[in-house]
Amino acid sequence: MVAINALTNPEALPLHLVDAIACTSALVVAPHPDDETLGCGGAIALLRDRGCNIQVLVISDGTLSHPGSCKYPAPKLRALRESETISALAVLGVEATAVTFLRLPDGGVPTYEPEFSQAVASCRNYLTQFPPQLIFLPLRYDPHPDHRASWKIIYTALTNLNLSSRLIEYPIWDWDETQRGSLPNLPSWRLDISSVVQLKQQAIALYRSQTTNLIDDDPEGFRLTAEMLANFTRPWEVYMDATI
């Protein structure tokens, strides 16, 4: 089964247990604060339960979700979203010391020079310090430019390192049929997270800035719809295998 059918009929994909991703160290790359929990929350909880050392790298600062808010100007919003990430990951078993915020501009994760090369260098240094056996990456063709840019930065950093990490890509905005474009031709499968799906749901709920009217003074502010959230609260998660 390949990725072109993965999201149109996900129930047809093979269903694997956590044994399929068993490892001693893993890195979860999140373009924004919340993507790690939405896309990989179940995998994180399952791997942590097995004693896997998980590091989380959040690429952007998340400050574009409510640009018109006076109650939450960018510095305060960044602090809020980072605190939500720490709280959500704690529910999933990840300590705050294992979470790194790169704080690149939300909506402007760079694909241009010299900022792109600077971001690649930062991530290369990070990967050298924490070389993981398994890396969860945002899907390379995700409709959101920050997701595509985050994939490109990490992928470029990896090509200059002598690592044998297994790469797994996870979808976020491809679940929205109105945004979905071409998908990569990658082997696709589901991970059974039924034993931890309630934990994942609890973790998602801690992102109140993205799921409730906590920030109520920006009519154009972002909020995940119930329809979109439903894609991330099922008893399985969809992944796609990739290679460097």
From TrEMBL:
Q: Which organism is it from?
A: Aliterella atlantica CENA595
What is the official name of this protein in its record? LmbE family protein
GO MF terms here are: hydrolase activity, acting on carbon-nitrogen (but not peptide) bonds, in linear amides
Lineage top rank: taxon: Bacteria
- Alphabetical list of Pfam families matching this protein: PIG-L
Where exactly are the transmembrane stretches of this chain? Answer: none
